[in-house]
Amino acid sequence: MDPLSPRQRRCLEAVLAHRRRTGLPPTYRELGRALGIASTNGVRRHLEALERKGYVRMRATARGLELTEEIEGAVGIPVLGRIAAGRPVEALENFEGAVDVGALYGTYPEVFAVRVVGDSMTGAGIRDGDLAIIRAAPRVENGAVAAVAIDGEATVKRFYEECGAVTLVPANPRYAPRVIREEEGREVRVLGRVVGLVRRMGT
After folding, report:
1. Are 137 and 190 in contact (CB under 8 A)?
2. pLDDT at 79
3. Residue 53 near residue 8, CB atoms below 8 Å
4. Mean per-residue pLDDT, 31-54
């Protein structure tokens, strides 16, 4: 399925929220109220975009909106509002949508994930075993945390390129920067920039 724009994502989240709350799909007017859209034609345009991208199916009835099988089975983890780290807040009744990695970052081939091995980037908040979310790009700016392949072997480091050399800098003082000079004839290929992390916390 194609990635959603922010407004289309908000529309889909409103559909999901109404279904969770009532057990029924919303009508155009109910969805319009949730989105702050007065025109049912405006709501229809959003839904038609979701249908084109494979997220919903529209039927010619008042509550004829259906989620496709892919969304029914993979709508993600519900976001139940904000929570304070210092003091408790009421959050569990404030459904804000669903967490889905594809909805947050995009889909392959624009975005992919790599499993981090080792502790060389702990100072950047990246730990052994994390999934690093990479936005594919052949170049990144100096100082970016990037996935880089050296002779086919991938690594995640801070990337610098200047004066005919690439320097890969770890974020852990136990490890030294790695400098690859052009005359060495190594194949250095930028895979993309790290844009997010997925981590399972210990129990």
Report:
1. yes
2. 57
3. yes
4. 90
The residues annotated as belonging to the active site are: 120, 157
**Fold topology of 6-104:** Arc Repressor Mutant, subunit A (1.10.10)
CA distance 89 to 14: 23
Sign, Cα dihedral of 68, 69, 72, 74? negative
Domain coordinates in residue numbering, the chain:
6-104, 108-198
Provide the pLDDT confidence category of residue 69 given band limits of 50, 70 and 90.
Answer: low
Closest CA to 128 of 83, 181, 85, 170: 170
Angle at 92 between CA 91 and CA 98, to 5 degrees: 100
Rounded to the nearest integer, the mean pLDDT of the chain is: 82
Buried b (16+ CB within 10 A) or exposed e, 84-102: eeeeeeeeeeebebbebee
User: Which CATH class for the 108-198 domain?
Assistant: mainly beta
